[in-house]
């Protein structure tokens, strides 16, 4: 499938993404990665198009990544900051979106603390036949598709820089460790990684990974998904380890006994990695609590950590997403 | 009058706008509307020029609209955010303006909660022979000229898309309903609409439209201006109904008995519109309190509501204003 | 030395700046000043490069100046606002910097309330062989090199507009008046002005200029540096007077008895300037407390005040700095 057969208008969730779509994203991102390594670094693909960055939940990292991606594509960017917005004046979120539509926004990148908001805006935009594209930049505990796609690009382009593709992850063992329950990153990654044929091993304390969790996941991929309440079975023979961020609010809400206890049981250390594959790599969506999810020295070890590559992949992957939905005619 | 005969340096108030000037704005906005409907959407008219967006009073909607208009004209934009500014360090507003002047600002778009601030800055800029242009983006209860001009463009381009002009509103009946007393939008619209020869009917409770109000308006247009303390006489036979935003601070300050009472007496509903012209259209400057100034279903009815068109007109009208003052040699 | 021999990768402090480097900055700034006076006002020098404006301490004036400078050089800009940032999520400053590095930032402009932060980030960027350039936009009480360089450009281009250079300040007497102790502006200016061969006379109350202050300054320039606890000896025969900003927090912390008392003893007035050279000029880094450090009428007198020129010089000088570090191959 080449980019001109891309038909998806919005990117809201990875739940129904096909392997072909994943591969198109990976190949497009690889192309943009080459552009970014070159001298020019910009392409005129979205010139004259307006990307509205609507971050109802504060974010610097993801917002900056999308902003830079849009600038590299030569789009005009409108930054929406909820603090000063009409929302405080009683306007609904759909009205805010309709205002940006009427101003001429072509793509809306939406983050909201409640699950489903990007979908609701997409439905309204479609109902109005607006042609606007919606990109979910993280909605509540639901999905964070661009994060999982940049993780996928990081993994596959490590394995084959010039031709990253889903097949490369077939049979790989990937451990996802930490606050699975509250993680939209984990949820999105579960879809993409199992679709690629990887074995995904989740590891967390029972409070952060309740028995019922698997019921929340689509059945189709269950045979590639494993749950552990201890770290070692997840790490054993793992090719990749993804540590998740432990949100401060969980730390103080009795989900874990203490940070030290959590680190002792589920923190990633050089010692614990000995049971993984010898060329194991570590990932983290950031920002990291150094010494909690992962030790400081591992995080900074370029032979082990893919954290910087994840951030770099973020720009090229988001360029790919904005480009694919921005130029499609559907 | 073509654009090259435009001589106004600042746009501060519509009080002394001539019909010729209104028509130049309308024609220029119509031209930019065509640009925005095309593929390119950008013109190099203000390339290298600096537009300083100085919103001392928070605003997302108007600020975004000006920002996008400036970007479509290829200007460079400086956004001033009062929260982090030198104002909190004891600097005067004129000093802030002089700092932006010295940095190279060519146009300053100014919103301030106190009436007269844009005028004061314009006076200082002229005294310094600076050549800087000032555009009032709303000052206290005084004026909001770009809002009234985008309303005018919305109305006249609805009546003749290819050739919007003042004469089209001759003899039309326009109701302005709501918090007239505190509305800079109403004040600006009263000048533009009566100059166009429309009949303007104001309707509000006496607390929001005191007897003395008319004395505040320039005498010249008084014969086209009517005041009502009930809704029906304003709506009867009306071609257009403009509902005004009810500010939260008025709601709690005894200006109205309650929101329900206000809505019962002055809220626009489908039923009440029956006494208007059959092709009546509704406007609102936004953001709307759904179910207060106007019912939700009316607001979303594309056959009745011009609210989206107003937002769209905002970008092309503000492009026209920035363009006209930005390229004039006066 | 022409621009292609520039080898400095970061601009962190003026302590070890050579006369040749100062002159290269002045000549480059003069070139950009000409660009800004022309019609185009933009150069493509940094097209495709990313300038990250990382102001951990709020600032409108300096941030806007750097932002405009970067835009005039056609760079893409990422604005970092600490309020919404990952710092509040427990990330370290170095991690934030590494995130911007991984996103593709080429130059980081850094302001922080603690001395040494820009240096620490520069060290980390060098350790990683990143090629990123760091520009200190003010760190604690330490240094504010771009301010001192724009002051230097203001002074020397006043004396020879077409060929500003260090030699022009040889033997000039420059008074720096006010809160020397807490001023990073004073510290940076002391290095640049004494290197140029000017006599620098510091004047302040003993609380704001303790005896030990001179020990903090590098020995080399001590013979051109004089300390006074009264105003008149500093003003006598002065060619230039730099008033420093009195921070509100000092006003209330017993450093001075009262604002009136301070103004009586150290405020610059027309009367007191009589003992200076007849063509004396006054400077202030802004924002000014009118009537405290300097009287209002002096500040607005274009024959005496260079305050506007300082702001204008800020854009061209910062263009020069971004350009010199941005295009150097070191």
UniProtKB/TrEMBL annotation, chains A, B, C:
GO cellular component: cytosol
Span of domain Aspartate/ornithine carbamoyltransferase carbamoyl-P binding: 9-156
InterPro entries cross-referenced by the UniProt entry: Asp/Orn_carbamoyltranf_P-bd (IPR006132), Asp/Orn_carbamoylTrfase (IPR006130), Asp/Orn_carbamoylTrfase_sf (IPR036901), Asp_carbamoyltransf (IPR002082), Asp_carbamoyltransf_Asp/Orn-bd (IPR006131)
GO BP field: 'de novo' pyrimidine nucleobase biosynthetic process; 'de novo' UMP biosynthetic process; amino acid metabolic process
EC number: 2.1.3.2
Pathway assigned in UniProt: Pyrimidine metabolism; UMP biosynthesis via de novo pathway; (S)-dihydroorotate from bicarbonate: step 2/3
MF terms (GO), sorted A to Z: amino acid binding; aspartate carbamoyltransferase activity
Signal sequence region: none
Domain Aspartate/ornithine carbamoyltransferase Asp/Orn-binding: 170-324
Enzyme class at the top of the EC tree: transferase
Keyword flag Hydrolase: no
Catalysed reaction, written as an equation: carbamoyl phosphate + L-aspartate = N-carbamoyl-L-aspartate + phosphate + H(+)
UniProt keyword annotations, A-Z: Pyrimidine biosynthesis, Transferase
Residues the record lists as binding L-aspartate: 89, 184, 245
Binding site for carbamoyl phosphate: 61-62, 111, 144, 147, 286-287
Pfam families assigned: OTCace, OTCace_N
Subunit field text: Heterododecamer (2C3:3R2) of six catalytic PyrB chains organized as two trimers (C3), and six regulatory PyrI chains organized as three dimers (R2).
Family of this protein: Belongs to the aspartate/ornithine carbamoyltransferase superfamily. ATCase family.
NCBIfam families from the UniProt entry: asp_carb_tr (TIGR00670), PRK00856.1 (NF002032)
Function comment: Catalyzes the condensation of carbamoyl phosphate and aspartate to form carbamoyl aspartate and inorganic phosphate, the committed step in the de novo pyrimidine nucleotide biosynthesis pathway.
The protein's name: Aspartate carbamoyltransferase
């Amino acid at each position: 499938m080449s980019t001109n057969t891309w038909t998806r208008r919005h990117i809201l969730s990875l739940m129904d993404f096909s392997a072909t779509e994943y591969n198109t994203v990976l190949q497009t991102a690889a192309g943009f990665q080459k552009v970014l390594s070159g001298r020019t670094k910009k392409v005129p693909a979205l010139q004259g198009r307006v990307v509205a960055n609507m971050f109802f939940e504060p974010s610097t990292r993801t917002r900056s990544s999308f902003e830079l991606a849009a600038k590299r594509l030569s789009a005009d960017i409108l930054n929406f900051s909820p603090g000063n917005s009409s929302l405080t004046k009683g306007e609904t979120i759909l009205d805010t979106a309709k205002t940006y539509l009427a101003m001429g926004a072509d793509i809306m990148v939406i983050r909201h603390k409640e699950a489903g908001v990007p979908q609701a805006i997409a439905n309204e935009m479609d109902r109005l036949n607006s042609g606007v594209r919606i990109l979910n930049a993280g909605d509540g505990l639901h999905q964070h598709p661009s994060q999982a796609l940049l993780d996928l690009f990081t993994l596959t382009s490590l394995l084959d820089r010039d031709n990253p593709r889903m097949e490369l992850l077939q049979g790989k063992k990937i451990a996802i460790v930490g606050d699975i329950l509250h993680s939209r990153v984990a949820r999105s990654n579960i879809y993409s990684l199992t679709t690629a044929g990887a074995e995904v091993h989740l590891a967390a304390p029972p409070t952060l990974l309740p028995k019922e969790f698997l019921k929340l996941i689509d059945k189709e991929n269950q045979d590639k998904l494993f749950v552990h309440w201890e770290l070692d079975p997840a790490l054993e023979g793992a090719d990749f380890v993804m540590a998740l961020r432990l949100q401060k609010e969980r730390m103080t809400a009795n989900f874990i006994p203490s940070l030290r206890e959590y680190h002792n049981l589920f923190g990633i250390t050089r010692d614990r990695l000995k049971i993984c594959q010898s060329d194991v790599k570590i990932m983290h969506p950031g920002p990291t609590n150094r010494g909690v999810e992962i030790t400081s020295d591992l995080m900074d070890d370029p032979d082990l950590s893919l954290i910087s590559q994840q951030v770099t992949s973020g720009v090229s992957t988001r360029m790919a997403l904005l480009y694919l939905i921005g130029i499609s005619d559907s």
